[in-house]
Write a structure and sequence with these properties.
Elements (H helix, E strand, L loop, with lengths): L1 H12 L2 H10 L3 H13 L6 E4 L6 E2 L3 H16 L4 E6 L9 H8 L8 H8 L7 H12 L3 H6 L3 H9 L17 E3 L2 E3 L1 H12 L5 E7 L5 H19 L2 E7 L7 E2 L9 E2 L2 E2 L1 E2 L7 H5 L5 E5 L10 H31 L4 H14 L12 H12 L3 E8 L7 E6 L5 E6 L9 H8 L3 E2 L3 E5 L20 E7 L2 E7 L12 E6 L21
Parallel strand pairs: 2-20, 3-6, 3-12, 6-7, 13-20
Antiparallel strand pairs: 1-14, 4-5, 8-11, 9-10, 12-17, 13-16, 13-17, 14-15, 18-19
Helix pairs in contact: 1-3, 4-13, 5-9, 7-9, 10-11, 14-15
Pfam family, one: DUF4301
Protein name: DUF4301 domain-containing protein
InterPro entries: DUF4301, Nucleotide-diphossugar_trans
Length: 516
């Protein structure tokens, strides 16, 4: 009743221009009212059972098991299945250069903080050094050495960040020079192409999909056209590289602090719905198996061994589990199963997929079959988790679902009630976290593609506080891609070495040994 009344009120409030804007984005008035209701009520916190651990929910395959899973994956690839690599790459690198922007705005002219000193002390070690030196020479009539010798440090930084130089302050991370090689430097985009050739190619073909912003798509395409022939020749594969943008229909309405629609000069303000919106882009891929990995988590060739090995291990575990689930589903379809078969399937769901239901023994056989079919016939993902070393990332947990079952989930801190000391302790003392290292199976046992938005938990977004033109506003973030947007998937956690996780959050991270 409250929703209908709110919808009626909203309808009377919207102008003809508002309705045209909504139609252009593909957003309904019902969706807008639902978002306004969320601003008023907030999102519920998740109910937790425990943090996942090696003793409870996280697999740690032995060396022999790893070899087995690598072989399983290699055999699967030989079947000619459609395999894709999905890389969220739309974010600008401005946060990566936060410290250097602050240096430009500082009242002092020489490096003062440790960060600034480290940047200049090792400036020759950056893969973009030669390009930056050339930009300084062109714009200042003097290279980096000369500018530094004369104390003109800020001119070096300006040429790195601003449009007249390298424009790194506005470009996405995927287009920055990360790693230096004898024959030139590579961007993360290129490193992902190389990775795809090494573990995601099937029958000599490698598919890679990047989500990008509209303003940078031309630059991404130009780099691909320039570099693709080189990597195809080097690795003996044919690449199929595609791009997509976050869909306007996934934008969310901003609200005032009073939970009314926020307007700028009379026009409704919409904001991107966060990376959770990309479940729509992932849903558009016509693949059997999809690798998901962040754009900035790449290493040079000399360190790719562990990455390639464990990507194949994760994928091997995925397809072996999927084949077991498919066999069980076909057995249930046939009707030719015994009580012992049902007990075996229950053990698979509870002990391997870690999906538990307390009253499972009380279910009648017909109810039990419906339950088991539902829990097996859904998307599946195997997630690499690394030992917790204090880096930001989602934690692996056993959490309660709306249907009363308990399953493995990746949770962010915003989903946890910080007033509950037990939950806070779980999160702080968690042994592992997920660095966005996923392998996903997105087709059912009959070969039909799952509609991934059907498996999103809409109650797992969060509200953040921003400002526009000096006015405070509330912003709505959709359920995150690897947590709430995949909440109703089957999830398996596998420990992988820390060497597979080397994110670049600040420019000085490129000075770490792993990126040299």
């Amino acid at each position: 009743m409250f929703f209908r009344e709110g919808l009626k009120r909203l309808y009377n409030m919207l102008t003809a221009e508002d309705k045209a804007l909504l139609a252009g984005k593909g957003i309904t008035e019902e969706q807008i009212e639902a978002q306004l209701q969320i601003f008023k009520k907030g999102f519920p916190f998740l109910k937790l059972k425990a943090a996942a651990s090696l003793a409870h929910g996280i697999l740690a395959p032995s060396t022999e098991e790893c070899k087995h899973y690598e072989e399983v994956w290699k055999a699967y690839k030989e079947e000619g299945k459609a395999i894709s690599k999905f890389v969220p790459a739309s974010g600008a690198a401005s946060r990566m250069f936060k410290n250097m922007f602050e240096f430009l705005d500082a009242e002092y002219d020489v490096p003062t903080t440790d960060f600034e000193k480290n940047f200049f002390a090792a400036i020759r070690d950056f893969a973009f050094y030669d390009e930056l030196d050339a930009a300084c020479m062109k714009n200042e009539g003097c290279g980096i050495d000369g500018l530094v010798a004369s104390g003109q440090y800020k001119k070096v930084v300006a040429n790195m960040l601003r449009p007249e130089g390298l424009n790194y302050g506005q470009l996405p991370k995927g287009l920055l020079k990360f790693h230096r090689y004898e024959n030139g430097s590579r961007t993360p985009l290129e490193e992902h192409l190389v990775e795809a050739a090494l573990y995601a190619a099937s029958k000599g073909k490698a598919e890679v999909h990047f989500t990008v912003s509209a303003e940078h798509k031309v630059l991404f395409k130009a780099l691909v056209e320039e570099k693709l022939p080189i990597y195809e020749k080097t690795y003996g594969v044919t690449f199929h590289v595609t791009f997509s943008e976050q869909k306007p229909a996934t934008d969310t309405l901003a609200a005032t602090m009073d939970n009314e629609p926020f307007r700028v000069d009379g026009t409704l303000l919409f904001r991107p719905g966060g990376h959770g919106a990309l479940i729509e882009n992932l849903n558009d891929l016509q693949a059997d198996v999809v690798f998901v990995k962040n754009i900035d988590n790449v290493v040079p060739d000399r360190l790719k061994g562990d990455t390639v090995t464990y990507k194949q291990v994760l994928a091997g575990i995925l397809v072996e589990l999927q084949q077991k689930a498919f066999a069980y589903l076909r057995k249930l379809d046939s009707g030719d199963y015994s009580h012992a078969d049902i007990e075996e399937i229950i053990r698979f769901v509870q002990q391997t997929l870690f999906c538990r239901r307390e009253d499972v023994k009380e279910l009648e056989d017909a109810e039990l079959v419906i339950y088991l079919r539902k829990k097996m016939n859904r998307p599946m993902r195997v997630c690499g988790v690394v030992k917790n070393v204090g880096e930001p990332g989602g934690g692996p947990f056993l959490a309660y679902n709306s249907d009363g079952t308990v399953s493995l989930q990746i949770l962010e801190s915003s989903q946890i009630d910080t007033r509950n000391p037990e939950y806070v302790a779980m999160f702080k003392n968690g042994t592992h976290f997920n660095p966005v290292d996923l392998v996903c199976a997105v087709k059912d046992y009959k070969g039909n593609k799952f509609n991934l938005p059907d498996y999103v938990d809409r109650n797992t977004g969060f509200i953040s506080y921003k400002s526009k033109n000096g006015k405070e506003l509330k912003a709505l973030e959709l359920p995150g891609l690897w947590n709430g947007a995949m909440s109703d998937w089957n999830t398996v956690f596998v420990e992988v070495p820390l060497s597979t996780f080397n994110p670049v959050k600040t420019v000085n991270d490129l000075l770490r040994e792993q990126h040299q």
